[in-house]
Amino acid sequence: MTRALPTAASMYDRVRRVIPAIEWPAFSDDIEAILALKRRRNAVILAHNYQTPEIFHCVADIVGDSLALARKAMTVEADVIVLAGVHFMAETAKLLNPDKTVLIPDLGAGCSLADSITAKDVRLMRERYPGVPVITYVNTSAAVKAESDICCTSGNALAVVKSLGAPRVIMLPDEYLARNIAAQTKVEIIAWRGRCEVHERFSAADIRELREAHPGVTVLAHPECPPEVVAEADFAGSTAAMSDYVRQRKPARVVLMTECSMSDNVAVKHPEIEFVRPCNLCPHMKRITLANIRSALDKNRHVVTIDPRVAERARWAVERMLFV
Ligand code: 13P
Ligand code: SF4
Hints:
Elements: H1 8-15, H2 25-41, E1 43-48, H3 53-56, E2 62-64, H4 66-74, E3 80-84, H5 87-96, E4 101-103, H6 119-128, E5 134-137, H7 142-146, E6 150-152, H8 157-164, E7 168-172, H9 175-182, E8 188-191, H10 204-213, E9 218-221, H11 227-232, E10 235-236, H12 239-249, E11 253-257, H13 260-267, E12 274-276, H14 290-299, H15 308-322
Bound molecules: 1,3-dihydroxyacetonephosphate and iron/sulfur cluster (SF4).
Iron/sulfur cluster binds at residues 86, 111-113, 139, 196-198, 224, 259, 282, 284-285.
C-alpha cells in the first residue's frame, strides 16, 4: 500500500518559527506538488544549508554542507537527484553518481569562487610551481577539478593538506580559505585570488560592534571569511561544523557570520537560543525556489551533463578527498 503524502498544512509546524503564517499560503501549493512529483519520478532533493527554510525543512530529503551532500549523492538509489544548491554541487553529484539524472533548477545558480578560475589557470600554476600538488576547493567547475590532484571542502581542507605529506601545496581558488588553513599548519600554502562574494563582506569591525551590542554573543564564522574575521571569531568551520557547534554547545546567544538562511535553518531547531542576525545573502543560492524545483521535476530540467573526458579526471580528484 502506498503511504499518503504529508500535506503542506501539516508541515507548517516545522518552520513556524521563521516563516510568518501570512506567508505560508504562497508556499503550500508548490510543496504539495513537489512531494507528489518526487514520488512520481522516484526523485530525491539534496539541499545545501543555505537553502531557504521552506525548501530545507519541507521538501528536501538530504541536507548538509558540501562534503555531506557529496558523500550522500554517491549513495543515492533514486532515479533522479534534484540539487537545491549551486551548479558546482550538482556537478559533484553527477560525478559521484553518473548513472542518475541530476537536475539543477536554475542554470544561473553559480558561485563567485567557481567563476574566479579556469582549467587553463590551473595548468599555468602547475608550470609555475612544478611538482607542487594542487588541492582544489569543490567550489569549482568540473574542468578545474580535472586539473587537480585532490579536492577539498571547508569541512576537510586541513585534513586534505595533511594527507598529502608535502612541504608545500597549491590551494585553489579561495584565497581566504587557503590563508585560514595556512594559519593551522606548517605546510606552505600557495593561494589563488578567488573570493566568496558573500563572506568577503564580513569584517573584524563587524564582530567588535556585535560584541558590544550583544554582550556575551558567541561568534561563529565560515572559513571563506577574511582571516581577520576568523581571528576575531570564537569558532570557524564549515556550515555543518557551525550547525554542530550550536547543537552541542548551545550558546545562549549566537551569530553565524555566513549566508542568511543558515541561521533560519538552525534556529528552527533551537528555540531556546537567541540568533543575532547580521548575515549576507548569496544571490546564487537564492535563485533556487520552490517554483523552479517543481518545474525541474515536472519538465526534467536542467539536466547536468559533464564531458566524459573531463568527468573521469574530475571524479578521481573528488573521490580521492572522500577517502581522506
Ligand atoms: P560548506 O561546504 O561549508 O557548506 O560551504 C559551501 C559554500 O558554498 C559556502 O559558501
Ligand atoms: Fe559561492 Fe559564496 Fe555563494 Fe557559497 S556563498 S555559493 S562560496 S558565492
